[in-house]
Structures are given as structure tokens and as C-alpha cells.
């Protein structure tokens, strides 16, 4: 494939790169251009989603989607992931200005950092070479470290950024060491070359390389036992940044993990499946148990994120087209649930406009803010997977894929463990509807918060089942593209 064709395949990344550079110049020239830069960044993300959509709709796969000598794949799987990432990033940009303006911390660099992080995520989900993978991962991570500590006057934000940086650097080192082992024992950095070299018996050195690579990626998806940073960073980072971390980077990291496992290590599924199953079950159980004693909503949602990653990994453990399709469906629903939940937290403010994060603060919310309480209840019950809310469908398709892949025991344990998680979600609903009103949530919310909360609430409501056909079809195309490349 010639250079011109390769450039056409990376059109979304080119658009985001040029937009980030242009908006950085605007930010440098005008320090009062935060909202304008945010709007233009959202437009750029929308344009990138528009450019990525044709590959998904056409189910693009195979050699025609490979760019730059097989280092980058603009297939349907990457397009599905990118569109989720771009939509989540747009939502996070919409909710940020009001929060940062209230704290006097909004600067035009914020949307530029989001654009650069999103650019890195796009490279991650399209990477078909370990070098490309690492470039995308570091581009995303470096922007994320700054975002976590964006409120320089807030000690919690600075602490979150430092913790994320130190642990992220450790995870990057582990990943890089794993990549070096894989290269040493396969002689290739491309996923295709590694897959071919690992077709026979797996050597001890290659096995260690596989384990280290998956360990490094496990940090990025907050899977147990590499989850320790998540509650602290989610609590300490500014809430719009936490919202971003829980959605777009999560999609990118999970999609990247699936591509590495099924493409680069596809011939050794039995070797890595055991690791994924352990991470899935441990994440489900620890995420559920860890959330029970939390009094801070952001920390609770951090453990919820760990819990949900476990369910997503069940789809990956199946290592089938149906399993990957179920994983993508769950991922799309999870993004909506997570985005809506954190937007609801953003809307909890007292009369002076201060952010409220305690579970005790929402006591009796149904009597003081009934619409907000209803939306929060919908999010919590959907995260718990309680029918008829749409979150139930995400869990159902994942468990069904596991059963079809002869992993019925894994599905059964996952179903049993999901009951533990339902406890703390229902606890939130109980506090809002049955406890005496704390009557501290007084602040109003702007139209962007209500718009996103309303759209996500409708998505996770029973109306979401109207999308099962189109969403399932797109996920099937994306999954088929991944297995075709593999």
C-alpha cells in the first residue's frame, strides 16, 4: 500500500493532530478562549468520528485496512472503539467548563490535552505493532498525567497526578520489558510476526513476555491486581477528568488488550485465557467488596469501574467472535452508564456551589431533587444489571458468550458475584428514596449537564433495547474484523 493510501487511512488521527496544534496556538495567543477552544475541540472530535464511521459501517477488514507496512489497522474494530472514545470525549468536554469556571481553574490547555490524549487512544486501538502500541499508549498517558493534576491549587488533584504518574511509569516499564521479551523470543515487533512465531510450542521466555505485556495492559484497564491507583486517582482528580478517565481511556485500553491478546497472542489463547479469567473474577469480586464500605461517591464509582472491567474481561476470555462482540456491546453500555453517573455527581452542589461527593449528602434526594434522583437511580440499577434497564443486556450477552465458549463455570461465578455488587448500587437508591433528607444539594446545573444526563438515562432505560439490533450488528462487524486480521 502506498503512502497516500496510508495517509487516507489515518485521516481521523491527522485531523486530531492538526486540530490540537492549531488550538494550542489559539490557547497561547488568547488566555480567555477556553470555551471557544472547548467547542472547537468537540467539533474536531465529531469530525474524527465522522471520518471513522465508514470503516465501521462497511465492516472494513483485511489487508486494505493496513497502513504504513502493517503498523496500523483502520478496520471496523478500531472504528467502533474510536467512535466510542470520541463520543465520550465530547461529553467530557461539554461538562468541564462549568466545573472549572466555578473553581477558577479553566484554561484553554484542558481541551487541547483531551485532544492529545484522544489522539493517543486512537493510535492504541489501531496499533498492530508493539512500537505503534507504545507510542499511542505514552501519548495518552502523558496527557492523562497532566489532566489528573490539572487543578494545581488542589492538594488532592496534585496527589492524584503524582500517584498516577509514578504507578503509570511502573506499568509502562513492565509493558516495555514484556515487549522486549516478546521481541527477543519471536524476532518481530509486529502482531502478525509475533503470532506466526508463537504458532508452535510456547517457550518459557515468550510466556514471561506475554505475562508482562498483559500485566502492563492490566494497569491501564484497572484490572485486579493492578487496580490500586484507581480509587485514589478517581477521588483526587477533578470530577470532569475522572469522568474522562472512566470512559474514553477505558475503551482504548480494553480494545488494545483485546487486539494484543487475539492478534499478537492469538495462537496461544490457552496460555493467556487463564490470566484473563483470574483478572476477570478477581476484578468482579474485589470491585464489589471494595465498594461496600465507601462513603465517597467517586471512590464507589472507581470500584464500580473495576467491577465492570471484570465483566468485560469475561467476553475476552471466551476468545471468540461472539465474545468480542459481547465485550464491545457491554463497553458501549458501560460508557453511557459511567458518563451519566459522573455527570450526576457533578450536579451535586450545595448553595455556595461547592462540590458534594459524600453518600450522606444525597440522603432523601428524591424529595428535594426528584428528577436528579430518578436519573441517579436509573444509573445505579443499570450498573447493577437489574432488568429491565439496559445494563442487564450488557451482562446477559457477556455471560451468554462465555457459556457458548464452554466457560459456563466462569459465567456462573460471574453471575453469583454480580449479586454482591448489586448491594452497594441498591444502597445508593435506598439512601435517596428512604433516608431522611439531608437537604444540602441546592445548586443548579447548566443545560450541558442535564442534556448528557438525560440522553444517558434514556439510553440505559428500557428504551435502550430498541438499539440492541443496530448495536449488536455493529459490534459483530467490529469483532469479525479483529478476527480476520488475527
TrEMBL record:
It holds the Pfam family Proton_antipo_M. Residues 127-421 form the NADH:quinone oxidoreductase/Mrp antiporter transmembrane domain. It is found in: Cell membrane; Endomembrane system; Membrane. It catalyses: a quinone + NADH + 5 H(+)(in) = a quinol + NAD(+) + 4 H(+)(out). GO terms for cellular component: endomembrane system; plasma membrane. The keyword Zinc does not apply. Keywords: Cell membrane, Membrane, NAD, Oxidoreductase, Quinone, Translocase, Transmembrane, Transmembrane helix, Transport, Ubiquinone. It is a multi-pass membrane protein. GO terms for molecular function: NADH dehydrogenase (quinone) (non-electrogenic) activity; NADH dehydrogenase (ubiquinone) activity; quinone binding. One of its GO terms (biological process) is ATP synthesis coupled electron transport. It comes from the Bacteria. Its EC number is 7.1.1.-. InterPro entries: NADH-Q_OxRdtase_suN/2, ND/Mrp_TM. The keyword Transmembrane applies. Belongs to the complex I subunit 2 family. NDH-1 is composed of 14 different subunits. Subunits NuoA, H, J, K, L, M, N constitute the membrane sector of the complex. NDH-1 shuttles electrons from NADH, via FMN and iron-sulfur (Fe-S) centers, to quinones in the respiratory chain. The immediate electron acceptor for the enzyme in this species is believed to be ubiquinone. Couples the redox reaction to proton translocation (for every two electrons transferred, four hydrogen ions are translocated across the cytoplasmic membrane), and thus conserves the redox energy in a proton gradient. This is NADH-quinone oxidoreductase subunit N. It comes from Pelagerythrobacter rhizovicinus. The lineage of its organism: Bacteria, Pseudomonadati, Pseudomonadota, Alphaproteobacteria, Sphingomonadales.
Amino acid at each position: 500500500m502506498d503512502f497516500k493510501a496510508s495517509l487516507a487511512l489515518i485521516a481521523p488521527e491527522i485531523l486530531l493532530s492538526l486540530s490540537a496544534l492549531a488550538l494550542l496556538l489559539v490557547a497561547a495567543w488568547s488566555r480567555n478562549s477556553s470555551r471557544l477552544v472547548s467547542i472547537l475541540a468537540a467539533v474536531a472530535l465529531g469530525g474524527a468520528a465522522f471520518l471513522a464511521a465508514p470503516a465501521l459501517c462497511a465492516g472494513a477488514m483485511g489487508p486494505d485496512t493496513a497502513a504504513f507496512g502493517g503498523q496500523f489497522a483502520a478496520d471496523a474494530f478500531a472504528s467502533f472503539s474510536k467512535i466510542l472514545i470520541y463520543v465520550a470525549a465530547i461529553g467530557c468536554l461539554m461538562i468541564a467548563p462549568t466545573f472549572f469556571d466555578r473553581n477558577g481553574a479553566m484554561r484553554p490547555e484542558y481541551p487541547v490535552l483531551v485532544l492529545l490524549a484522544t489522539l493517543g487512544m486512537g493510535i492504541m486501538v489501531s496499533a498492530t505493532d508493539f512500537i505503534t502500541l507504545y507510542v499511542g499508549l505514552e501519548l495518552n498517558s502523558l496527557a492523562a498525567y497532566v489532566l489528573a493534576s490539572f487543578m494545581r491549587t488542589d492538594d488532592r488533584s496534585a496527589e492524584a497526578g503524582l500517584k498516577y504518574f509514578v504507578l503509570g511509569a511502573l506499568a509502562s516499564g513492565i509493558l516495555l520489558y514484556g515487549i522486549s521479551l516478546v521481541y527477543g523470543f519471536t524476532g518481530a515487533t509486529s502482531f502478525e510476526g509475533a503470532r506466526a512465531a508463537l504458532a508452535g510450542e510456547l517457550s518459557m521466555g515468550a510466556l514471561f513476555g506475554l505475562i508482562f505485556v498483559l500485566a502492563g495492559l492490566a494497569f491501564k484497564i484497572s484490572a485486579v491486581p493492578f487496580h490500586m491507583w484507581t480509587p485514589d486517582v478517581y477521588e483526587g482528580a477533578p470530577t470532569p477528568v475522572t469522568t474522562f478517565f472512566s470512559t474514553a481511556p477505558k475503551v482504548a485500553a480494553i480494545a488494545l488488550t483485546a487486539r494484543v491478546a487475539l492478534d499478537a497472542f492469538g495462537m496461544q489463547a490457552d496460555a493467556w485465557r487463564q490470566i484473563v479469567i483470574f483478572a476477570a473474577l478477581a476484578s468482579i469480586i474485589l470491585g464489589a467488596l471494595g465498594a461496600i464500605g465507601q462513603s465517597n461517591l467517586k471512590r464507589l464509582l472507581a470500584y464500580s469501574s473495576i467491577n465492570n472491567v471484570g465483566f468485560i474481561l469475561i467476553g475476552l476470555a471466551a476468545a471468540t467472535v461472539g465474545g468480542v462482540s459481547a465485550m464491545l456491546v457491554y463497553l458501549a453500555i458501560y460508557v453511557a452508564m459511567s458518563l451519566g453517573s459522573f455527570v450526576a455527581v457533578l450536579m451535586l452542589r450545595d448553595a455556595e456551589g461547592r462540590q458534594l461527593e459524600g453518600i450522606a449528602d444525597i440522603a432523601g434526594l428524591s424529595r428535594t431533587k426528584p428528577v436528579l434522583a430518578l436519573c441517579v437511580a436509573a444509573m445505579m440499577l443499570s450498573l447493577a444489571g437489574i432488568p429491565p434497564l439496559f445494563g442487564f443486556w450488557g451482562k446477559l450477552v457477556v455471560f451468554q458468550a462465555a457459556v457458548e465458549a464452554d466457560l459456563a463455570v466462569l459465567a456462573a461465578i460471574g453471575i453469583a458475584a454480580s449479586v454482591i455488587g448489586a448491594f452497594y448500587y441498591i444502597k445508593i437508591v435506598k439512601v435517596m428514596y428512604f433516608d431522611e433528607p439531608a437537604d444540602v444539594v441546592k445548586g443548579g446545573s447548566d443545560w450541558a449537564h442535564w442534556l448528557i444526563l438525560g440522553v444517558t438515562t434514556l439510553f440505559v432505560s428500557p428504551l435502550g433495547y430498541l438499539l440492541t439490533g443496530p448495536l449488536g450488528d455493529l459490534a459483530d462487524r467490529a469483532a469479525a474484523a479483529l478476527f480476520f486480521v488475527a
